[in-house]
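During the reporting period the student researcher (J.K.) took over the structure-prediction task from the postdoctoral fellow and processed the backlog of single-chain submissions. One of the processed entries is reproduced below for the supervisory committee.
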Amino acid sequence: MLFRTLLFIIPELSSFLRTANRNGFILSCRGDGKSDSQPDVDVWEILRKAPPSEYEKIAFQYGITDLRGMLKRLKRIKKEEKKSTAFLKKLDPAYQVDKGQKIKLMVEVANPDADVKWLKNGQEIQVSGRYIFEAVGNKRILTINHCSLADDAAYECVVAEEKSFTELFVKEPPILITHPLEDQMVMVGERVEFECEVSEEGATVKW
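J.K. obtained the following structure tokens:
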């Protein structure tokens, strides 16, 4: 995992100490995310069962950055679909994955020799190091490696004239302090430097 070293430099410690208690002071650093890890949960199910008044609270708790866009997309998902002749098993209505992890989207087709196409936001996906296609018997699998926020989108699997739709939601894990600040002793007027490490490069922090 990549780490970013954060530096907080106080050129004139004497002026800073005037505002602190003579017996010492404490300087803390935290990321914008929560420091406690969250259990693996299905946010889709939580939102589906929750009243609208709780949506914003749930989004904040589980790191959903585009709640409005997500709800618009969820609203478009059909609750009931007509019986398919091309698919034995379609995609689930929605999937969730943590940023940086991989996910597999899988369907089962009626014809084991059928060719399928995978689309992302209406554009056909091409095989690459991050997108891998597999055909195992009747199963057709799309693997997305190292998911980023750009993978948060609508996906389709197309067989002939039939389509199976789903939504993928990429969740940002909380930013953690992996190496905390250490106590330092300096003389009045000297410069002091504080350093800590967080779990994500480029993370926004507050001193």
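The committee noted the following: The helical segments are 13-17, 43-49, 55-61, 67-76.
J.K. will present the remaining backlog at the next meeting.
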